[in-house]
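About this split. The held-out portion is used to measure sequence recovery: a designer receives only the structure tokens and must propose an amino acid at every position. Recovery is the fraction of positions where the proposal matches the reference. Here is one held-out target exactly as it appears in the evaluation file.
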């Protein structure tokens, strides 16, 4: 589905910006070992739990836009790790905040997928 890590990461952030659960279903690995840790520190483990958490977030959270700054990148033929500074703008209020986002990707039979996302607020 996603031929490169760059493509799946771009799709991941666009799906958050668009509150697009259908896209998230394509982006996350088809596995029970995936993990999502939101800015609130709560962890969801397993594909079903991750997608349910994202569905709830999309139903209640404001629309945001991301401006990413890459700080760390590591990869092999089958696994990639990227750590970004996520400069986030709330669309409605233009309020800005910053997070550190750690993303792990795994190459599956049909391409790259997300297996872990952790977002942590940057202390002021």
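Reference sequence for scoring:
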């Amino acid at each position: 589905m996603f031929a490169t890590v760059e493509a799946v990461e771009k799709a991941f952030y666009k799906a958050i910006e668009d509150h697009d659960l259908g896209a998230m279903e394509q982006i996350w690995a088809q596995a029970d070992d995936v993990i999502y840790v939101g800015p609130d520190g709560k962890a969801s483990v397993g594909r079903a739990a991750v997608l349910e958490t994202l569905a709830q977030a999309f139903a209640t959270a404001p629309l945001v836009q991301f401006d990413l700054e890459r700080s760390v990148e590591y990869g092999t033929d089958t696994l990639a790790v990227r750590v970004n500074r996520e400069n986030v703008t709330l669309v409605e209020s233009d309020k800005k905040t910053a997070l550190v986002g750690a993303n792990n990707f795994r190459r599956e039979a049909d391409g790259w997928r997300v297996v872990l996302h952790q977002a942590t607020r940057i202390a002021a």
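Annotator remark: The chain has a mean pLDDT of 96.
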